[in-house]
Every structure is written in C-alpha cells, then in structure tokens.
C-alpha cells in the first residue's frame, strides 16, 4: 500500500502519507514548536551542550535532523559552524528559513524540506545534532532517521549530539491506579444501563458486545501508559537502567526490541507498587577521539522543581503489589514496536516480588501500550 | 501516492491508508458507537422510520451503508426484510455480525467488511438505509458513498432512508466570540513573553514568527467552527434553509460545493449577531411512487430539551454585528471541501446588514473551517 520509505537498511516499511497523517502533521504547528521551545530543561541542555563545546562546531559542517523551527541549527551557526544542513519534513521548514534569516545566519543554515531518508547532502558532516527523543525515549521511532543520517552522512571521526541515551524504570506509588479502576467500573456500569435501555426502547440486545466493550475500556484505562510529571517522593525503589544507547554505534535492530532483566530494591515500608515509571536521559559527551569539554546531561526523571514536556510514562499495575523495605522486584522488561504502527510501542513487564526473607511470589505479567 | 478509491464517478481521489488513519479509525471503537447509539433523537428517528413503515421492508432486500454496530440492519430485519446487506469498512463489522447473531437475524443480515465503493452485491436492493450525516450534514463527505451505493445497487423504484436532507443557517447571540477573542489575546501575550525570554536566554530572536503564530491561533480560535448544543433563545433571527437534498436524485457534483443567497430577518432588538449557527434535518418520506405511511423527521436544530451528538456548528463573526428588530442580514453562503482533505469543509459567509430603514451597510466576509 502506497509509497514506502526507502534507502536506509532496517528502516520500517510504512506508507508515507499515513505516516504524515499520523505523525509529522503535529510538528507543522507553531503551538507545538513553542511547547518544545518553552521546555527550559530541554532548551538549557541543548543550548549549553552547543555553546560550551564550540570546538566541536567551529568551522565544521553540521546536520540537524528534524530541525523544526530551526533553533538548534541557529545555535550551531552561532557557535561557529561553517555550514548547517537543517532537514525538516514539514512546512515548518519555511519558518526555520525565516528564523535563520532574521538571526543573520541564512548563509550558514541551509534548510532542506524533505524526509531525512530522501536527502542528498553535498558533503559529509562533522556533527549530527538532533532532538529526536519521544516519550520514554523511543516512542515516535525518530531515532531511526538519525541512524540513517549518521550511516550516510557522518564522517568517520564525527560526533553525535546527543552522544548517549539511557532508559530508566522505577517502581512508584500513586492513587492513579485506583482512580482508573474506578473510572473503568463507572464506564461498565454505564454500559450495562445502556444495554438495558437499548433492549427496552429499541428491541436489540447488545449484551454480546459487553466483553469487547470491557476490553476496549481496559485497554484505554489500564493498559495504556499515562503521561505524568511525578514527584520524586512517589518513587519507592531504586531506579534501574533498562538500556544505554551509544548514538555513534546504535543500529535500528538494536532498538527495535528492548529487553532487560532488572532488579528494583524497594526502599519504602508498608507501601504498594501501583505502577512503574519510565523515563530517559541523554548525554552530550562527544566521542572518544573528540570528547566534549563540558559534558551536559538532559534528564526527564521526576523532579520536585518541575518537569519536562516529556514527563514520565506511567505503566499501571493492576492490582498493585504490596511491598516492604528490603523487598526486591525482579522485572523482566520487553518493549517492541506496535504491530499496527511502528512509531508506537508495546511493553511487557513480568514482575516477581522477592521478599526480604528470600521467598519469591508468583510472577505477574503486565502489558501496556505507549500511544 | 498510494491506492485510490475507484469505481464511482465523481468520488474523491484519496489515499485509502490516509483516509483510514484520518477518518475510519474512529468508527472502529465501541465507545464511539455507543455515543451514537445513546443519541435518543437519532435513535428514535431511525427506529420509528423503520418500525412505522414496515411496508417498505417486508420481504425486501435492503442495503445499510456504514452499518457500524449493525443496529439499523437489525431493525430492518425485525421489520421483515428478506435480506439486509450491511456494509462496514472497519473491524466494527465483527461486532455487527455478533450482534445480528445474538438477536437471531444472522440469516437475514449479511455483514460485509469492505469499503462501499469496493462491494459487489448478488442483487439490487429495494431500500438503502444509512446514517451518513456528519456535522452540519456534509462533514465527512460520507454521502458520496451512499450516492455511489444508490447508483449501483438501488432498484429503479427503490427507496432511500432518509429520503431528504436540509441544511439551515441562523444568526445567534453568544458570549463565545468575546471569549475566543480574549483567548487569542492571552495566547498572543504569552507568545510575546516567550519571544522576549527566548532572546534573553538563548540569543535567538523569534519575532519573525509572530505573524505566522497569530495566523495559526486566529485560525484555531476564530476561524474554526465550534460544536455546540445551543439554547433556542440564542437564535435572534429567522433561520434560512441553505439547501435541500433529495437523496434519490442528488449527485456528488451537487453537494461538492454548496452556495446559497439567504435572507435572515432579525427578531431581537438591540442585539448583536456574534455568530451563525448551522444545523441540518433529515426526513424519512419514502419516494413518490412508494411513500412512507408515517413520515419521520430527525432534526439537529437547537432544542431546549437537549440536543443530539451532532449539536450545531457555530461560525464566529468577529467583530459581532449590532442589529435591531426589523433589520435583515443578507448572507451569501458558500461551502466547499477543504483542499487538503475532502472530508473537511471550508465556508465563506458574506454578510450584508440591511437596516429597517432600507440602508445597507458594507459587506463583511467571514471564512471558517469545519474540522
């Protein structure tokens, strides 16, 4: 069906029109760009990463993958880049071009409106910069395009901005699981009344759809991750790293499915794990041959002083698991791309509680989608 | 780009995958079906139209275009139809099949999961029934598929359910226009602070995007129609009929662009037209050769006792027009399909106030999208 992405080994086969309707369209709005540009944690990290490591940019060629409004490209130019190729798939490219001109770097920043996979550059580049991170790092699967860009256009001694990325998981307490269970019960009560009324008024018995209705609503209320900026005191165990990605080396195969065996020591007494929280951080460390002078980190972990527009992704556990300090949760984690649409994710978590006595309780399997 | 709809003359050329992502996907959810099935005005109208006109159905072949959960098809079977072909493009078809079985009409109702345009039936039908109406009647452009079905599968003396449809426009008073103007001002004040902060913290001047940001937000706040169930006392002039459609005769060309010259007499003193409201009604009158025994009407006009899930579409006038009893508003109305996506609509209203003295004020042009 339809035209396919091409060129990059390992890239998903997807109808481009559908992908634009489902995904890229959002990035064509300035209100959405402004939301990202107003995220101070995000902005500070990229700004400092570039402005405190000018040696990576001075006189160099840079590629910005998914430039959006073009701000990263402009910073690279301001840091002394000789040339910045700023690739953007949406009409936001026009605004990026205007912005580069307004800021006097139109001779350095060349905005190219195209899918990264379709672009041909006149030279290889010294730096690839990109803000490609989605919820829980990999939602949107945009890193595929960065890998494609790197394999084609980065010089052998080139540098990636960011250079590394990590995914984290932690057990949390939250009233949200009880709330969502109650919402589901309300929805089902409402459904039962609806079935009764439809039979009474219109002579059609709808009860055969009750199971499907419940499944649809369980998926919505309980089996879809929630966006949240949590308070750090909701975390009741030591976070575990799921995965570290070296942006210079990673392959699409490596990130298509993420699996990990995690140990989460509990540090709260008489508590309940009502959910897991997932988040990410990225580092700007340069490369081994060409390290950063000033390493910068961008984290989306729970923060009492506020959060990022990424927040954390919350995966509900239903029912919650009662825990005590000294217990450990052993989690078998797997994340893969949704079958129907490669930019969304399906997660499976198998939780096994190991009590401080050493006794293990039966494993509990939780499946949740990031939509 | 992609596979195209085919077969029906005049049908829009559209990528089917994109169309599914943008449109059909919604109808695959039971929560959405339930919303429609809980609309008592809608349900009563179709239920009475069928159950009070059994002579149209007894022993007949019926086609239900876009059957959804299948309820119309089941009613037709209960009214005595010999065969009901129930066509549905989404996976909701599975539920429709279950529901037909549960209600004992599985030998009569044959659910076919396909686009109407692609279906081949074993016979021509006596009745086509469909609930094809979108906001302000024609949003979704689903009537195209009904026309296609009619031209291919309805017998020469066949009947359409509904048989007729009408679009209406009325001047209304509402605080919503002032509210939306204020929302826009707030958004722009926020933008200006954002521009200042971005320059101060990150050395990039964003002011070149101010015009585009304002345009994007004017479109969102002022130039996109609003869904509303209005109170009848908000109507300050006599509603005018924009268009009447005879479902047996209508062509896609006839509904692709709707134009009308309307006269709206004002019946409220010292008031303001802050918006126009658009709605529709449909009639179940059968055909000339084969009339309904009991004519039924479904209206989505403002109703003090509640409304329908369609509500009315509200088109803001900015600034509002001051009017007095005895004035008339002459409206030149045009609605066409959005260039980028044929299921959405663009509307142009040229308003000319004729005072009771006979004096005419200069025309005011309003453009608004139904999204």
UniProtKB/TrEMBL annotation, chains A, B:
One of its GO terms (molecular function) is protein-arginine omega-N asymmetric methyltransferase activity. It comes from the Eukaryota. It catalyses: L-arginyl-[protein] + 2 S-adenosyl-L-methionine = N(omega),N(omega)-dimethyl-L-arginyl-[protein] + 2 S-adenosyl-L-homocysteine + 2 H(+). Its EC number is 2.1.1.319. Residues 185-349 form the Protein arginine N-methyltransferase domain. Keywords: Methyltransferase, S-adenosyl-L-methionine, Transferase. The keyword Metal-binding does not apply. Pfam families: PrmA, PRMT_C. One of its GO terms (cellular component) is nucleus. Gene3D superfamilies: Hnrnp arginine n-methyltransferase1 (2.70.160.11), Vaccinia Virus protein VP39 (3.40.50.150). One of its GO terms (biological process) is methylation. PROSITE patterns: SAM_MT_PRMT (PS51678). Ring-like homodimer. Methylates (mono and asymmetric dimethylation) the guanidino nitrogens of arginyl residues in some proteins. This is Protein arginine N-methyltransferase PRMT10. The lineage of its organism: Eukaryota, Viridiplantae, Streptophyta, Embryophyta, Tracheophyta.
């Amino acid at each position: 069906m339809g035209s396919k992405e091409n060129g990059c080994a390992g890239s998903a086969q997807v109808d481009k029109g559908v992908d634009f309707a489902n995904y890229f369209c959002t990035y064509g709005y300035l209100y959405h760009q402004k939301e990202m540009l107003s995220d101070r944690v995000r902005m500070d990290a990229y700004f400092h990463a570039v402005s405190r490591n000018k040696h990576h940019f001075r006189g160099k060629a840079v590629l910005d993958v998914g430039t959006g409004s073009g701000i990263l490209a402009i910073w690279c130019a301001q840091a002394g880049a000789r040339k910045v190729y700023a690739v953007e798939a949406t009409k936001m490219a026009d605004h990026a071009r205007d912005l580069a001109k307004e800021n006097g770097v139109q001779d350095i920043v060349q905005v190219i409106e195209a899918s990264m996979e379709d672009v041909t550059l006149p030279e290889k580049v010294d730096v690839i910069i990109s803000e490609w991170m989605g919820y829980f790092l990999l939602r949107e699967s945009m890193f595929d395009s960065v890998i494609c860009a790197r394999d084609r256009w980065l010089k052998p001694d080139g540098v990636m901005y960011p250079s590394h990325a990590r995914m984290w998981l932690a057990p949390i307490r939250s009233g949200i699981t009880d709330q969502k269970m109650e919402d589901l019960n309300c929805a089902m009560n409402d459904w039962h009344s609806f079935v009764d009324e439809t039979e009474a008024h219109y002579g059609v018995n709808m009860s055969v759809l009750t199971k499907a209705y419940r499944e649809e609503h369980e998926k919505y209320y309980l089996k879809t991750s929630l966006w949240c900026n949590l308070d750090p005191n909701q975390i009741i165990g030591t976070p575990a790293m799921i995965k570290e990605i070296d942006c210079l080396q990673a392959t699409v195969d490596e990130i298509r499915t993420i699996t990990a065996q995690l140990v989460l020591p509990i540090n709260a007494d008489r508590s309940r794990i009502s959910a897991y929280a997932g988040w990410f951080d990225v580092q700007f460390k340069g490369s081994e041959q060409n390290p950063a002078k000033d390493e910068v980190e961008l984290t989306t972990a729970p923060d009492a002083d506020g959060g990022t527009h990424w927040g954390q992704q919350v995966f509900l556990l239903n029912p919650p698991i009662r825990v005590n300090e000294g217990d450990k949760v052993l989690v078998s984690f797997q994340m893969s791309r949704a079958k129907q649409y490669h930019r969304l994710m399906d997660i499976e978590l198998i939780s096994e509680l190991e009590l401080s006595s050493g006794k293990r309780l039966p494993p509990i399997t939780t499946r949740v989608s990031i939509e």
